[in-house]
Design brief:
The protein is α/β, with parallel strands linked by helices. The chain has helices spanning 38-46, 61-73, 113-126, 147-158, 168-173, 186-193, 200-209, 248-261, 266-280, 291-299; strands at 2-6, 10-17, 32-36, 54-59, 77-82, 88-95, 101-105, 132-136, 161-165, 179-182, 212-218, 224-228, 232-236, 302-305. It is globular.
Length: 310
């Protein structure tokens, strides 16, 4: 079973505007609305490839009901912890001319210690040996900042594997942990170590020393860098006409989890992950990965084993 943890879900309202500039009025725009949050994006991707899936989220108010309906639509075996307040909304403004993306993120509901205990109790009961636990995204107010580290240790004790995708201060407080994979982008890993010049080989080694069995550093159009104790890989992705990169990191992690669940060889799993992320970037919809596109993209993924010097 794959368990997807979404502690800070959101309702994404996306606006596509030509030549967006601050300080002006833009009339007649219709939002594209998606229940979101990194965990829900991952659920949306994986539900097209494998079921059943297990989904966990704190939900609040009318927005929380939208999150619930979406998880139910995707066929998840869900654990919803109802809390006071309102599930947050995120405004995404997409400049169609420049390709720039602007995000305005609301604050979500406050999570009490009782709410946190309910989450951990559910995971304690549900996570089994050989399961996969996915931790991604930001945290709501109130919950302790090392909760991802705590969940990773719970999963390890249960014999499950944990995948982590987060950045900023939350990545720091999630370490040291017990992770099969940590998937930062290049900016996130450089910010973590306040190091903007060292090779990725050195930075990924530091992350391995803090509890990651493997590290996948995504680099946008430049592909990715993978590192574990046995090998380093430079991955190139095909050039495509990108529509939106929102959700591509989530899709990449979903692809890795899917490959892992199917016991694919490591190189195939890494290729699948990057092809999922690339497919998502070809669509407006967040968390849309097309099977036919994946089959074509994966043929053009280039993986080269590297010395530890990238």
């Amino acid at each position: 079973m794959i368990h997807i943890i979404c502690l800070n879900p959101t309702i994404d309202r996306m606006y596509y505007i030509d030549s967006f500039l601050p300080g002006f009025q833009y009339h007649g725009n219709k939002a594209e609305v998606y229940p979101g949050g990194k965990g829900l994006n991952i659920l949306r991707v994986l539900s097209s490839f494998i079921r059943p899936l297990s989904f966990y989220a704190f939900t609040a108010g009318d927005n929380g009901k939208i999150i619930k309906r979406e998880a139910e639509r995707l066929g998840a075996q869900s654990t919803f912890i109802e809390v006071d307040g309102e599930t947050r909304t995120t405004i995404n403004i997409m400049d169609k001319k420049s390709g720039n993306e602007t995000e305005i993120k609301e604050k979500g509901p406050y999570i009490t210690e009782k709410d946190t205990s309910a989450l951990l109790s559910s995971l304690e009961s549900n996570v089994k040996e050989n399961d996969i636990v996915i931790l991604s995204g930001s945290l709501p107010d109130g919950i302790r900042k090392d909760i991802y580290k705590e969940i990773s240790e719970l999963s390890k004790r249960k014999g499950a594997s944990t995948l982590l995708d987060t950045g900023g201060g939350l990545l720091k407080t999630s370490l040291p942990g017990r992770y099969l994979l940590i998937k930062p982008n290049e900016n996130e890993i450089r910010d973590l170590f306040d190091d903007y010049s060292s090779p990725l080989s050195l930075l990924s080694e530091k992350l391995i020393n803090k509890g990651a069995d493997s590290v996948l550093i995504t680099r946008g159009g430049d592909g990715a860098y993978f590192r574990n104790k046995d090998m380093a890989l430079d991955i190139k992705v095909p050039k495509e006409d990108v529509v939106s990169t929102i959700g591509s990191g989530d899709s990449t992690l979903a692809g890795f989890a899917y490959g892992l669940s199917q016991a694919l060889p490591l190189l195939d799993t890494v290729s699948l992950a990057l092809s999922f992320g690339t497919s998502n970037a070809l669509h407006r919809e967040v968390g849309r990965v097309d099977k036919a596109e994946v089959e074509e993209i994966i043929k053009r993924i280039e993986i080269r084993e590297k010395e530890y010097d990238l």
